[in-house]
Specification:
Rossmann fold, 3 domains, 8-stranded mixed β-sheet, 13 helices, 18 strands, globular, binds S-adenosylmethionine
Length: 499
């Protein structure tokens, strides 16, 4: 089903569009396009995607509607000035030419955030210089100076540097939009709320309107996907409880902000009873405790939480739904190898027990992706903080594989036969050699067949390490992926170890 066409005239209060302000929304890399879609639905004008953000235009009220309604953006900036600065003096002069008394006065506490890199100097120094220029302008005009509050300022000024280019903006959201204003406890490696919302949108959760909505997160941790999914389905604006992020801003239009909040409250009330089935499972009681607290704080009272492992996972009753999962990906050295069996199990469970479901897996490790053993229909690269991840779409066919619990449904491609033969040959020869030389560690295979571009090392009877060499440019990523999947199937078979 297509998303409902946005009737922006309904969302707006003005008759004719006023696009007097240019705004900039920052976002996690990889989520720019879904943010742009969301902004257009929220009634923004002239939406334009750039690397790491989206420009849009509108009245101040349009900007407020975005601040309250966006689930995906990290910050909403209102640029005041753009100028060139070769050095610190140029920066000071550029900042000082803004009419700062329109924005703050001695009564306002403020802070300066700096992003990017430029000729004006290192970030901390740029923040200091900017602060000096603003303080001097206000003191000169009004006789006393505003003070600095780095933790909870009345206004945040944002400086972006790119070479000699400086952009000075007002930050309309203060502490960061991923904070939903409902408090949140712990979690082993919780997803940022804004990233979880972006991933759900990529998975089409927002389009499932009208159908019976079913969502399962089998490793739900602190419950981020469940909360964001519930809020999306029930039209709960994430900014409803957050308040305005720049309360000290002199140009703030409190009446316009109140109108935006009132409209969001109305939409929330209208969708409050929408039926949604939300199920979260986790093997850790501690994580489930966090999920319980977080769901309660977010006002989501009807999600089902279960203690269990992937091995016991069964689909909830009802039609096939959306299966979203953010498994551990083992950032520390050596951990990823231990997680291989978990990813294989994920593939098995999906294939056997979730016919007709749409599964999406957030993976931070390519070798682990392959262990799932199911070919993704699409892959989206997204940044999860500093970690580059892939959001893999794995549609599960209507026919579940039957018979046994093992990974019998997995089959290597025809091309893998030559790899298997070579591996068997090497194994026969080298295992004999290892025995004679009283060693149990040796390299079994080293890209002997160029198509299968991996090294396979054996350490004793049950520890095998597979490492992929960098993919040559002429080999397409999809082909390299298929071959690596083959390798991960063939190696355990030939060596008689558990996958
Ligand atoms: C990366 S965290 C998920 C974080 C979650 N998305 C959030 O935002 O809080 C991975 C979760 O998987 C759970 N887990 C690990 N192995 C599991 C298994 N075999 N079955 C079920 N849950 C498992 C862990 O307890 C942990 O909570």
């Amino acid at each position: 089903m297509e998303p409902p066409a946005q009737d922006s005239s309904e969302a707006r209060t003005e008759e004719a569009p006023t696009t007097d302000n240019d705004f900039f929304a920052t976002v996690a890399r990889g989520a720019e396009d879904v943010l742009a879609e969301e902004l257009a639905e929220l009634g923004a004008y002239e939406v334009e995607v750039v690397h790491g953000g989206v420009h849009f235009a509108g009245s101040l009220e349009d900007g407020y509607r975005v601040c309250v309604g966006t689930r995906i953006a990290s910050r909403i900036l209102l640029p005041l000035d753009r100028f060139e600065a070769q050095d610190a003096d140029g920066l000071y002069e550029g900042v000082a030419r803004t009419q700062w008394t329109d924005h703050l006065g001695p009564e306002t506490t403020f802070a300066v955030d700096v992003a990017g890199k430029g000729t004006a100097g290192p970030g901390k120094f740029v923040a200091l210089k900017t602060k000096d220029a603003i303080v001097d302008v206000i003191r000169e005009a009004e006789g006393s100076r505003p003070s600095i509050d780095k933790i909870d300022p009345g206004l945040r000024v944002h400086v972006h540097l790119s070479g000699t280019q400086v952009t000075v903006s007002i930050d309309l959201v203060g502490r960061g939009l991923h904070r939903r204003g409902v408090g949140r406890t712990g979690g082993a490696a919780p997803l940022k709320e804004s990233l979880a919302a972006a991933l759900l949108r990529m998975a089409g959760w927002h389009r499932r309107e009208g159908e019976e909505l079913v969502l399962l997160d089998p490793m739900c941790g602190s419950g981020t996907f469940l909360i964001e999914a519930a809020w999306m389905a029930r039209d709960v604006a994430p900014g409803l409880r957050r308040g305005f992020g720049a309360p000290g801003w002199r140009a703030h239009d409190a009446k316009a902000f109140a109108r935006v909040i009132a409209a969001a409250e109305e939409r929330k009330a209208a969708a409050a009873d929408r039926p949604v089935v939300l199920v979260g499972v986790d093997s850790s009681e501690e994580q489930l405790g966090h999920a319980r607290d977080n769901l309660k704080a977010a006002g989501v009272t009807d999600a089902v939480l279960r203690h269990g492992t992937l091995a016991d996972l069964e689909p909830p009753e009802g039609p096939p739904g959306l299966f979203v999962v953010n498994p551990p990906y083992g950032e520390r050295l050596g951990e990823a190898g231990e997680l291989g069996p978990l990813y294989s199990e994920l593939g098995d469970v999906l294939k056997r027990r979730f016919p007709g479901w749409s599964a999406w897996v957030l993976s931070g490790n390519r070798a682990l992706d392959k262990r799932i053993g199911l070919r993704p229909a699409s892959k989206r690269v997204v940044m999860n903080g500093p970690i580059e991840c892939r959001w893999l779409e794995i549609p599960i066919g209507e026919q579940a594989k039957s018979g046994g619990d093992g990974p019998g449904w997995r089959k290597a491609s025809a091309e893998a036969e030559m790899f298997e033969n070579r591996l068997r040959k090497n194994h026969k020869r080298l295992s004999r050699w290892a025995l004679q030389n009283e060693t149990s560690a040796y390299r079994l295979y080293d890209a002997d067949i160029p198509e299968f571009n991996v090294a396979v090392d054996v350490y004793g009877d049950d520890l095998i390490r597979v490492e992929e060499y960098r993919r040559p440019k002429k080999v397409e990523e999809e082909v390299a992926d298929r071959r690596l999947r083959d390798v991960m199937l063939v190696v355990p078979q030939v060596l008689g170890v558990r996958p």
